[in-house]
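Input (structure):
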């Protein structure tokens, strides 16, 4: 079964690129400079920023549903990122190198399954979850920090 792991669309973040720190703060965002790699995972490019790169730390609603599973959390995006990552039948290094909480949701946006695994073991877990026809999509979260990492859809 084929699957796609996609980065976030950069469109909602473009209005933040280049804003002064005070304007970012008014939008509950903070500019940070990566000082280590890994450690600053961009959710648009699905790559860790290199030391010295500028990112924005923002609160992002990754499950914008009108129900009990509505969810948001802090995440990083590279300032100026434009290329939305897309991995087909492949787990990007950013996920493969971390402990991941994988959550399955049905077409009603209700969680039907969840598992924690080392990122290098995600591919068979993704395929197992998608073997259930009730599963509409998956969300990957960094298990330690709890932040949203990526959405996974059927390919």
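Output (sequence):
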């Amino acid at each position: 079964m084929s699957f796609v792991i996609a980065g976030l669309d950069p469109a909602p973040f473009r209005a933040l690129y280049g804003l002064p720190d005070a304007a970012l703060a008014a939008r509950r965002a903070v500019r940070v400079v990566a000082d280590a790699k890994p450690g600053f995972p961009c959710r648009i490019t699905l790559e860790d920023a290199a030391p010295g790169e500028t990112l924005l730390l923002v609160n992002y609603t990754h499950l914008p549903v009108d129900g009990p599973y509505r969810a948001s959390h802090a995440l990083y995006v590279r300032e100026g990122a434009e290329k939305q990552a897309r991995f087909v039948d492949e787990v990007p290094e950013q996920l493969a190198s971390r402990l991941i909480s994988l959550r399955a949701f049905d077409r009603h946006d209700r969680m039907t399954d969840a598992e924690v695994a080392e990122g290098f073991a995600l591919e068979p877990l993704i395929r197992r979850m998608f073997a259930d026809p009730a599963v509409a999509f998956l969300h990957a979260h960094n298990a330690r920090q709890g932040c949203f990492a990526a959405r996974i859809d059927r390919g």
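Notes: The chain is about 10% helix and 40% strand. The mean pLDDT is 97.
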